[in-house]
Specification:
Length: about 1800
């Protein structure tokens, strides 16, 4: 039998091997035809495109997605450019490219000739690019094509006749192109063609008769071409047509030539805008639903079918005979919409589009209602036939076909906001008609506001709407975009005004959609023109009476207004009262909740203002790149530190979010405590605990009063190490701090270290080896791999810790230039001493005594932590063990290479080292600022190459060199280069000036101005003593100019204007004798001007500027200044002649060419103007701009022919105005930057607008406000108050925008005209008061009542707006840091099915626990407090308070599991996890906690089987300084420590005891008491000690464990027995337990069995007869995942031999198991790269997997691979779908990702590119 069994084994092994070989062979794929590969590569190369992330040119293109067979190219938008292949050729060995898609990628150029080599193409899509030139004739060689898309390109020339060779085509698309000539006759060969799109293709000539052969044609769209001839007679033979659109094709002829009744399937027939004649056909197809014959020359009467149900019919602008017999067959007014048929004589009208009510607006114009819901081809005319409207087009795939849009949003910039509550939208063509207008010139005013696309950061805000505007057939606006014209904002009014002529009593306004913009945002079928209101007014005196209804009595109107206003005011007051009452009730409820669970960590801005004395500068503790930090005191006495985000710091804002999210997720005694934050201020605020002793660097390196002895320093080092251990290994989120340094370690009153400043912290995935990221940190603490290669792991923090540890030992910073050369760099000095075995020589000489062993250990650890390779550095947990002596310090063998490279062999610091430091410093600076080098030089290799050393141009002479450097390579005989010039100019850099800048000691030129730099100016700039130019203008610095700048004695030019600086000028500036340029305008300086002696050189030109309110004028001095006196001031303008505007306003001239600092006042002293500033390098200094361009959107275009510009500050003054409220109207148009595609169009003008000193517009950009266009009028209106008969309008240039386009010195504010009008009835007229009248009193009463009502409405609006803004800000914060743990009862009722008994998971003294599911898919466990349980209520408070104050990866986030089979490796990790969690609670949490109820049922397992300690209901805080706490006993029998159970003495050792019990249970797979087994084993502890004493400890191992690590098992048993010692002093702390379990420390030998066990037993070892105890244990009802799995039992063997058949059977089973194992290893698993990417994507977006699939473990399981649909299933969102057919069914790839309508905020994560098999990403 042995031979037979052996043969069987071999046979089975051969079969398995064959199976594996076949599987490998099956994976050998076919190769792509190399000719096609070369052609494809050439095509993409010519177009400057690369492959999509889903496939690649290198290697084999036809791999992966191109051959997956599951989706076509249109089904996978990410596959663009994309291909599909067919690999069935040559017996599956050759692939051919069958589909090519290069869609909407703005490809430029012609169609490449290489395309003809792709002869197997069946699908070619080149739509929506910028391809030019003709379609090449070789296109006819691609005869396999079934679909050809080349539309939406500027292709030109004639269509090649070779298109007729593509006889397999069923779709041809050439729409929206620039072709010329006729359709080739050869198109008649395409007999399989089903869809032909030729609309807007530029074609002409007649339709070829050969098209009659296209019998399969279902869709023909040929609109907007220049075809000639009659309507093709062959159209009638194309009986399969369903969609026929020949609109605006220039065709003519008799409509009766076509029998439209033959089209059985025709639904859409659009023949409008042609020259068709004849009468309407007698019959049409019954399937027709939309018919458009408008704008033709049709005559006759109407046939009976015009009344057909559901038929949308448009017949406007024809010559029908409308008699009394047939006029009633159609909607009224059609007679007025016929050609040359004037109706009612009229001269104006206005329409509120889409509104169901008429509105009279502020200028007394009556806007009529327009509520008819027009169909796809229909019209409407008013009953008085004054105007009409028509619509043509059907919304594609729209859920509803309504074309009237409603909005409740407040409209910005609207004079009459009611007009914008509705709008009319059309899918194609929307026309408004003026009927019977008196001939003459008219002003057409169109009013728009985008109502469909919200401004919120969601996908719905991505919508874009484009359309064209025609007035009387003349194109006025091409690609008009409402939102763009409104400065990129929705819900903002846009006004467009045009002048036109009515000559035939008929006016037409045509809004036309040409197919551009989005189609499906916010819903499917949402596009086309949209208009809110329009008005038509004559520019002449009418001779006819208008058809507007007569006005009613004024008295009745006044009474009605007064009564209505009074009622409205009362209603509003009542509403305010109810809102306040409701808020108070809610506040009371919240207060009750806060009293129960503690005040939430959200402070109001008012609270923090009060705490910090309104953010007084005297309370500033310091300032960083983030912003200033203030000291404050809360009302409860807590001293706090408040971090304020500076407004200009965009990086700071992201840092704020990072810091809140990070600190909210981590809590540890060595991490700074976050009290809360504030988000209702303009600048977000963080509230920290205030640490009196400040930062470690001040204590170590400063001259403070804190003296740190060695014991304190050692504890500080240990504390920092423990804090980093928590961040890296124990926190629920893994964090790299990235900026560990002495100044980021704060000391509390006990000198306990706290790691602070998480602004640069970065989360990381422990499964990744590293993360590539931008450099952030501080020079001197950066690990080499991070500084040089941007590789980020937690070992970056380990390196920085080593630096800080050495600094603490040495009592100095890592770099100190004041020391002798060999000691400048701490690392080099330390290594030098270490190699000489003199390491203790670096110890701070201020330390009088210290432990030599501890110091030596710290130095060793520091040197290990700062090894060059991150793999050589230990993890922080190992560092802690080494520092405490639990583990030996690893031997340091050699000095790191990065230090060796810095030195000569002799050990002296070299010039090469200085050069390398400059390179590292430069890379660090650019990395911190998020910038790369300019294209003319590179950081890789050698920066000082090429342009930086060309010696030809300076930095200012090469604008492309930005960021830029210049170098001097003359040092050490031309072998070393130093950076001498650095320019980072106007690049929107955010943050501080990095400390690394001090390493550029050879700099003579430094310009970092025109950036958003903030914080203080570092004093280290004073070390750059070679500087002759320093530019820091237009920045956001704070604080004073440092005195050290006085050391820059070579400085010639200093630019600090608009830098945000304060304080006095340093006296050290007196040393700057070479300084040539210094401007002190608007510096807030004071004092006697005569105290300074100015010698005026002959070449100076001094101008005088004084403001009227700042200078006392006496009679003796009046003659020295221009005359002025008070008078009435109303309007003024900016032009060299006076002009009367269309509203009869007289705009006065303003032609004075002001100097660099001068002013002008009119002769009547009604208004004045002043200018300050001189243009830099301007060829002429004129500040008046002239233009002859036509100004768009201008009411009075003459006002924009000139404009005044200023290089800095331009002010207009109103003098002697009557006090009151005024409207200030400013009129702008950009005149300097042409719209042509040249470099001159790149100019940007940005300035601020102040009215009466109040900032109205920040960074105002005329061109941006005009929708990106120059020569377009922009109107800005403001309301202001004049209280001292004086008005000031200030336009101020803050240095932003371009300076030198179109010429040098072209920048600053610019204004074309302005007017000031009172909002009241003036009481002065040439100094004589007006007589009052009763009408004024009546008007005053009505206006007053209206004002009261409006004020109340405004108050409510502002109140609601503020609440919404706060809610939005809180929502953004909550999305990042987690929703607050307060749920409504309604939410939890819904989640638990009204607390259904079927959902009960269990019950305790606290109350029942229910399972539930939140609306977002999270599965939760809900504990309910039983009403009768007073103890339970206290437990509730305890648990909320406790879990709120601790966070750890091994503390609960509830996910229950049972019926699990746990192998030994999993069990060991569970034991380790419980130990880590308890270590955190006892030793590392900011509050020290004893759990009191550690047991198996209180350890929950998540989906990864990670243990989570739960049920903090009995937890108790304790003071570590107390030896114990006496308290009532709480817990579970079997887990209670003896001193607690007997004497109620509570310490953390109670949890240590319970941990020992749980550890034994985990090893044994049973509970600590089991009465069902033999007596000697009932009590687990007794049984374990019996076996331990017999040296048989392994016998307690769970028999279900087939395989386990014996060493680990013995270690756990040893630890468990040690943890359950009788005396708490004999039990180790949990940190020691951790070290023993991980093997870092030796197990302490146990000597004797605990006395409490000895006392329980008889001498013969039997169990005690204590029935009460047994009964107590027997009453336990625990749920233990270790004991719920079925027990595996088997028979024991006595060693006797079995027969050979048994051997054969066992061999067969072994071989079968082997094959099964091979098969199991090949079972389908998700690609781990995709798992990691998916986990990261959901994490970045703050989402979790829905319950139907699981990101942990195996995502491609459950719903992800079954047939369940996810499109309409809200419970499966986010959702994925997988394909597990790859690699013979062993690998799954994610092919669909759906994250639909979840209000995800942020960018699309870059990890998405790793999901390369996605074919559906539509639902993002």
């Amino acid at each position: 039998m042995g031979g037979v069994s052996g043969k069987l084994v071999w046979v089975l092994l051969v079969m398995c091997s064959s199976w594996l070989i076949a599987a490998v062979h099956a994976q050998q794929a076919a190769t792509t035809d190399p000719i096609e590969v070369a052609a494809l590569e050439a095509i993409l190369g010519r177009w400057g495109k690369t492959t999509s992330p889903l496939w690649r040119m290198s290697g084999e293109p036809c791999r992966g997605v191109p051959v997956d067979g599951s989706t076509d190219l249109d089904g996978n938008p990410k596959n663009n450019p994309g291909i599909k292949c067919d690999c069935s050729y040559n017996s599956g060995t050759v692939c051919h490219i069958t589909q090519l898609r290069v869609y909407a990628l703005n490809v430029v150029g012609q169609i490449p000739a290489e395309l003809q080599n792709l002869t197997y193409l069946t699908y070619l899509n080149l739509d929506q690019n910028y391809l030019s030139g003709p379609i090449p004739s070789f296109i006819g060689q691609l005869t396999a094509l079934t679909e050809l898309h080349v539309g939406f390109n500027p292709l030109s020339g004639s269509l090649p006749k070779e298109l007729g060779n593509l006889t397999n085509l069923n779709l041809l698309g050439i729409s929206l192109t620039n072709f010329s000539g006729q359709l080739p006759e050869e198109l008649g060969n395409l007999t399989k063609l089903r869809q032909l799109y030729t609309d807007s293709a530029g074609l002409s000539g007649p339709f070829p008769s050969t098209l009659s052969r296209l019998k399969n044609l279902k869709l023909l769209r040929a609109s907007d071409n220049n075809f000639t001839g009659t309507i093709p007679d062959f159209i009638g033979s194309l009986s399969n047509l369903e969609d026929l659109v020949l609109r605006n094709c220039k065709i003519s002829g008799d409509l009766g030539a076509v029998d439209f009744s033959k089209f059985a399937n025709l639904t859409f027939l659009f023949l409008g805008n042609n020259s068709l004649t004849g009468e309407l056909p007698d019959g049409i197809s019954p399937s027709l639903t939309n018919l458009d014959f408008s704008y033709n020359q049709l005559t006759g009467s109407f046939p009976s079918w015009v009344t057909q149900n559901n038929l949308q019919l448009n017949l406007v602008a024809n010559n029908f005979i409308l008699g009394s017999t047939n006029i009633g067959m159609l909607p009224p007014g059609l007679n007025c919409l016929q050609e040359d048929t004037p109706c009612f004589r009229d001269y104006s009208f206005a329409v509120d589009c889409g509104s169901n009510r008429s509105i009279r607006v502020s200028d007394n114009t009556m806007y009529e209602l327009d509520s008819t819901n027009l169909g796809d081809s229909s019209y409407y005319v008013t009953s008085q036939t004054r105007w009409g409207v028509s619509n043509v087009g059907k919304l594609f795939q729209a859920p509803n076909d309504s074309k009237i849009i409603h909005s409740g949003e407040k409209i910005q910039n609207a004079v009459d906001s009611e007009l914008f509550q509705t709008a009319r939208m059309s899918p194609s063509s929307l026309r408004y008609y003026g009927l019977g207008l008196e001939n003459g010139n008219y002003t057409v005013l169109l009013k728009f506001a985008e109502l469909g696309f919200p401004d919120t950061p969601t996908w719905q805000s991505l919508g874009r709407r484009f359309f064209d505007i025609y007035i009387q057939g003349e194109l006025k606006e091409k690609d008009f975009n409402i939102r763009k014209m409104a400065g990129g904002k929705s819900f903002t009014a846009v006004y467009k005004s045009y002048t036109t002529t009515v000559s035939k009593n008929f006016l037409e306004i045509h809004l036309f959609w040409a197919g551009k913009g989005t189609c499906c945002i916010p819903i499917q079928g949402y596009y086309g023109p949209l208009i809110s209101a329009l008005s038509i007014t004559p520019n002449f005196s009418p001779t006819v009476r208008n058809g507007v209804p007569k006005k009613k009595s004024k008295a009745g109107a006044i009474v009605g207004i007064v009564i209505a206003a009074s009622v409205l005011g009362s209603a509003i007051l009542f509403g305010i009262f109810m809102v306040i009452k409701k808020r108070r009730r809610m506040a009371k409820q919240q207060e009750e909740l806060y009293n129960l669970v503690g005040q939430p960590d959200v402070f109001s801005n008012a609270e923090l203002k009060l705490a910090t004395d309104n953010f007084s500068s005297q309370n500033i503790l310091g300032e960083g790149g983030y912003g200033p930090v203030y000291k404050g005191v809360l009302p409860d006495g807590r001293v706090i530190a408040v971090k304020q985000l500076s407004q200009s710091s965009h990086q700071g804002k992201s840092q704020f979010v990072t810091e809140v999210a990070t600190i909210s997720a981590v809590q540890h005694r060595n991490l700074v405590k976050l009290h809360g934050c504030c988000i209702d201020s303009n600048t977000p605020l963080l509230v920290y605990e205030y640490l009196k002793n400040g930062s470690l660097d001040k204590a170590l390196f400063g001259n403070g009063s804190i003296k740190l002895d060695w014991a304190t320093r050692f504890e500080i080092i240990l504390g920092i190490a423990r804090g980093l251990t928590y961040l890296h290994e124990e926190s629920s989120v893994r964090i790299v701090h990235r900026d560990i340094k002495a100044s980021n370690v704060l000391l509390d009153t006990d000198l306990t270290p706290k790691i602070s400043d998480f602004g640069l912290a970065k989360l990381y995935d422990e499964k990744k080896t590293h993360v590539s990221t931008g450099i952030a940190g501080t020079f001197g603490y950066l690990a080499p791999e991070y500084a040089m290669r941007r590789h980020l792991t937690e070992k970056v923090d380990v390196f920085a810790f080593g630096v800080v540890a050495l600094e603490i030992v040495a009592g100095r910073s890592n770099t100190d230039n004041s020391l002798e050369e060999s000691k400048i760099y701490l690392f080099e000095w330390a290594w030098s001493l270490y190699e000489k075995e003199q390491a203790l020589g670096i110890v701070d000489p201020r330390l009088e005594e210290f432990s030599r062993d501890e110091v030596y250990r710290v130095i060793h650890v520091a040197l290990v932590c700062t090894q060059g390779s991150p793999y050589q550095r230990p993890p922080m947990s190992k560092v802690v063990a080494m520092l405490t002596g639990d583990v030996e310090v690893a031997e340091v063998v050699t000095k790191p290479n990065y230090i060796t490279e810095w030195q000569f062999k002799g050990g002296n610091t070299s010039y090469l080292a200085m050069s390398m430091r400059e390179v590292a410093a430069l890379e660090a600076i650019l990395g911190r600022w998020g910038k790369t080098t300019s294209p003319v030089w590179s950081m890789s290799g050698e920066p000082c190459r090429g342009v930086p050393v060309d010696g030809v141009t300076g930095l200012d002479g090469n604008p492309k060199n930005n960021p830029g450097i210049k170098c001097d390579c003359s040092y050490i005989n031309g072998t070393v280069c130093h950076i001498t010039q650095l320019k980072v100019y106007a690049l929107n850099v955010v943050g501080q000036i990095p400390a690394e800048l001090q390493n550029f000691t050879y700099l003579n030129y430094l310009h970092v101005g025109f950036n958003a730099l903030s914080g203080p100016i570092p004093k280290e700039l004073g070390n750059l003593t070679n500087l002759n130019l320093l530019g820091i203008s237009l920045t956001n610095f704070t604080g004073q100019l440092p005195e050290e700048l006085g050391n820059l004695t070579k400085l010639q030019r200093l630019y600090t204007d608009s830098a945000g600086l304060s304080g006095p000028f340093p006296s050290t500036f007196s040393k700057l004798k070479n300084l040539k340029l210094l401007v002190l305008r608007n510096c807030r300086i004071s004092g006697d001007l005569g105290a300074r002696f100015f010698i005026q050189p002959a070449h100076w030109k001094l101008s005088l500027l004084v403001y009227p309110e700042q200078l006392a004028i006496y009679s003796t001095s009046r003659a020295k200044l221009p005359p002025e006196r008070h008078s009435m001031f109303t309007r003024f303008s900016r032009i060299n002649r006076s002009i009367r505007g269309s509203d009869n306003t007289m705009y006065e001239l303003d032609f004075t060419d002001l100097g660099g600092s001068s002013y002008y006042v009119t002769s009547e002293t009604r208004w004045g103007v002043s200018n300050v500033g001189k243009y830099f390098q301007s060829p002429n200094d004129s500040k008046i701009i002239y233009s002859n361009e036509k100004i768009q959107n201008a009411v009075v275009s003459e006002l924009f022919q000139t404009a005044r510009m200023s290089p800095s500050s331009l002010r207009y003054f109103g003098l002697g105005l009557e006090n009151g409220n005024y409207t200030v109207l400013l009129q702008f148009a950009e005149l300097g930057y042409p719209d042509s595609p040249t470099w001159k169009s790149l100019g940007r003008r940005v300035f601020d607008i102040y009215i009466q000193g109040d900032l109205k517009e920040k960074d105002f950009d005329i061109r941006k406000m005009a929708g990106g266009k120059s020569f377009t009028a922009v109107y800005k209106s403001y309301t202001t108050t004049v209280s001292k008969n004086f008005l000031e309008i200030h336009l101020f240039w803050a240095g932003k925008g371009t300076c030198c386009i179109p010429i040098q010195g072209y920048y600053g504010p610019l204004i074309s005209a302005l007017s000031i009008t009172p909002n009241f009835t003036p009481t002065v007229r040439n100094g004589v008061p007006k007589r009052k009248s009763k009408a004024g009193a009546i008007a005053g009463i009505s206006i007053g009542a209206s004002v009261v009502g409006l004020a109340a409405l405004f108050g409510i609006f502002m109140f609601i707006k503020k609440r919404r803004r706060l809610a939005q800000q809180q929502g953004e914060l909550y999305n990042l840091v987690g929703r607050p743990d307060v749920f409504s009862n309604a939410e939890l009722k819904l989640a638990t099915n009204n607390y259904s008994s079927q959902n009960i998971l269990g019950e305790g003294g606290y109350g029942p626990v229910y399972k539930g599911m939140l609306p977002d898919g999270r599965v939760i466990a809900v504990k309910q407090l039983s009403q009768s349980s007073h103890q339970g209520k206290n437990q509730f408070v305890t648990e909320v308070a406790t879990i709120s104050s601790v966070q750890h990866r091994n503390l609960v986030k509830l996910h229950g599991k049972n019926s699990l089979k746990l192998d030994w490796a999993t069990r060991f990790e569970i034991i380790l996890g419980i130990a880590r969690g308890l270590t955190y609670l006892h030793e590392e949490s900011s509050v020290r906690i004893v759990h009191r109820d550690i047991k198996a049922s209180n350890v929950l397992l998540d989906t990864d089987l990670t243990p989570k300690i739960s049920d903090f209901g009995l937890a108790r805080l304790y003071d570590e300084k107390k030896t114990h706490v006496s308290t009532g006993i709480a817990g579970t029998f079997g887990y209670l420590a003896p001193e607690y159970a007997m004497r109620r003495h509570l310490t953390e050792k109670v949890d240590v005891y319970a941990f020992g019990v749980v550890a034994l249970e985990t090893v044994a797979g049973r509970s600590n008491t089991n009465n069902s087994i033999e007596e000697s084993k009932i009590y687990l502890l007794e049984w374990a000690w019996d076996l331990y004493e017999k040296e048989q400890a392994q016998r307690i191992v769970d028999p279900r464990l087939e395989d386990f690590n014996k060493d680990e098992v013995l270690r756990v048993i040893h630890v468990a027995l040690l943890c359950t010692q009788g005396s708490p002093n004999q039990r180790p702390p949990m940190s020691r337990v951790m070290a023993v379990l991980t093997g870092d420390a030796e197990v302490v030998e146990m000597v004797t069995k605990p006395s409490y066990i000895t006392e329980w037993q008889y001498r013969d070892g039997n169990s005690t007869n204590s029935e009460s105890t047994t009964s107590e244990f027997s009453r336990q009802k625990e749920i233990d995942p270790l004991t719920m799995s079925p027990t595996i039992t088997g028979s024991s063997h006595d060693g006797s031999s079995s027969n050979s058949s048994v051997h054969v059977f066992l061999w067969l089973m072994l071989v079968y198991a082997f094959c099964a194992a091979v098969q199991a290893q090949q079972a389908a698993r998700t690609d781990p790269a995709e798992v990691a990417a998916l986990d990261t994507i959901l994490g970045r977006w703050g989402l979790r997997a829905s319950p139907a699939w699981n990101i942990s473990g195996e995502p491609c399981s459950g719903v992800a691979i079954d047939e369940t649909g996810v499109d309409n299933n809200p419970n499966i969102n986010p959702a994925i779908k997988c394909d597990c057919s790859f690699n013979a069914g062993t690998v799954c790839h994610i092919i669909r990702l759906r994250v639909f309508s979840l209000n995800v905020v942020g960018q699309i994560p870059e990890e998405l590119q790793n999901l390369t098999y996605l074919n559906n990403l539509y639902d993002l």
